[in-house]
From TrEMBL:
Gene3D superfamilies associated with the record: 2.170.150.70
UniProt keyword Lipoprotein present: no
Parts of the chain that traverse the membrane: none
Any one Gene Ontology molecular-function term assigned to this protein's record: metal ion binding
Keywords from the named record: Metal-binding, Zinc
Identification of the protein by name: Uncharacterized protein
Family: Belongs to the Gfa family.
PROSITE patterns associated with the record: CENP_V_GFA
ATP-binding found in the keyword field: no
InterPro entries: CENP-V-like, CENP-V/GFA, Mss4-like_sf
Domain of life: Bacteria
């Protein structure tokens, strides 16, 4: 059963801190170049269910390919806690790196493989 929960998260050094209301029943593991190199496991939430609590001034931005997703990473430790983009209907969204969420047992998740490499 799917359930939205409140999560706190942060980068490795703690400079970037955020919270989000997310459902971890449908996380993905994408094989595109950036997700595979970073080892990302992602969940997606509307932007209004995400709050950046600290670190806006520390965040760096990386875009590639279609330039539609802003991969945000900590300028201190280099970890990408989230990305910014839009859902197919244009709704602003955040792609959250589940590995950055506090208290989540990654081994208990069942990420759905996504073929981002072929897109």
């Amino acid at each position: 059963m799917s359930e939205t929960q409140h999560f706190e998260g942060r980068c490795h050094c703690g400079a970037v801190q955020f919270s989000a209301n997310a459902d971890l029943a449908n996380v993905i593991s994408c094989n595109c170049s950036i997700c595979s190199k970073h080892g990302l496991i992602l969940t997606f939430v509307p932007a209004d269910r995400f709050t950046l609590a600290a670190g806006e001034d520390t965040l760096k931005d990386y875009q590639f390919n279609t330039m539609r997703i802003r991969h945000r990473f900590c300028g201190n430790c280099g970890v990408e806690p989230f990305a910014e983009g839009a859902m197919p209907d244009g709704t602003p969204m955040r792609a959250i790196n589940v590995r950055c969420l506090d208290g989540v047992d990654i081994a208990a998740l069942s990420p759905t493989p996504v073929d981002g490499r072929s897109r």
